[in-house]
Amino acid sequence: MKNAILNYIKKSIIRFARTKHGRQLWKLFVSLVNGYHLRRLLVKALAIDVQTHSDAFTVFPKIRTSLSDKNALIIMPFYGNDAVGKNIDTKINTLKSMGFTIHVIVYNDSPWDSCNPTWDYTYNIKCKNGKFGTLRYDVNQQIINDGNRLDDWIDDEVCQFVASLSATNNFDVAIINYVFLSKLCLYLNKSAISIIDTHDVFAKRNTRMTKIGIKQDKFYFSTSKDDESRGLSRADYVFAIQEAEGAYFSECVTSKVIVQPPILDKNFIDFSPKMNKRTVIGFLASGHYPNVVAIEKFIDSLAKINHNVRLVVAGTICGVLSERKYPGFVHTLGFCDSLEGFYSSCDLVINPDELLSGMKVKCLEALSYGIPLVATKAAMEGILSSESYHKFETAEECAEFISTLKKDELYEMAEKSKDTFMEFNKRYNFGKTILQVLKDNE
Fold this sequence. Notes:
- The chain has about 450 residues and is α/β, with parallel strands linked by helices.
- It is built from 15 helices and twelve strands.
- It holds the Pfam family Glyco_trans_1_4.
């Protein structure tokens, strides 16, 4: 009974922490605790000997030496329970199955630390120069859409840390997530095979974001084609997340380009439409702002036409959606405890994203559960399908299709999801990709 209560309290805290108000409260708490004067009071009150406990006040975590003769380094700017995190998890699990000891560096300016029990060594490094996540402005203090320079978000300290860690552990392979951390390729041990995992094209990314209605306050790293090409060429290999981006990178970088999308396990459920009259539409997503724009366009489109739909939205996106009042057919569930439970509760899943960028892992995830999926062409980029309901141009077209959909049509759509997923997994295999990379460098 006691454990059940504690687990309930723990889950409640986690759910609240992922809401908008939870994030604001935590940010306030961290700023207070890390304030100079309060920190001095705490040290004095607890009678802490700063000299004796100097590790608590060092700039970097202590570097540890691996006893393994096979070491892999993963560097990323963030990690969480989202599409990016699942992609990284898949690759780390594959490397571990091949006998590699996993060293992870998470570098950002967040007060949160990241960890995972499957990682052997974890280092959370915070940017010290205050520039991580910043954009560039012109003389009139207007944001330059694609004004980031290649190394804007890197500081000297993390470069020194990577050099020291690499010298200590002599990595066989290093996977660096995103081009804006590409400078770290230059600080690896010479024998390390360096790979930049792109996830997306960052050249003129904010300009593309603007075209689908995303405002400047939601902009992210965006640079020139020349800077991106120079950054990617620092690595031995570039992993593109889908074929179109692979072809693009092959034309502008000197590194070897390999198309390696995320690979998910098959999780097919015993699908059958729900007995209730309404069609239950699911949307599971992070708070990444293109997801917000996509689902709001879909909701607005659905609100203008006759339908018999109940839309359920889950994931950290719910903390962002809480800022606006939505029609009665929209229900937000918050953080999702069980993927299988969520997908089992839906008649079909929607992805109305109109931003052509990277690969939408949430599409792949829905297919991996064998659930009917309705999506735009942009959302399905990199996932081959001949079905017309996987190729809509806009969120409005998705809404119109769903409003006329009959439940007995869902059985065939579920089978098509399974077929599409199995064909995708046949084409790509991360284990084979890494083995080939290692073989080429023997």
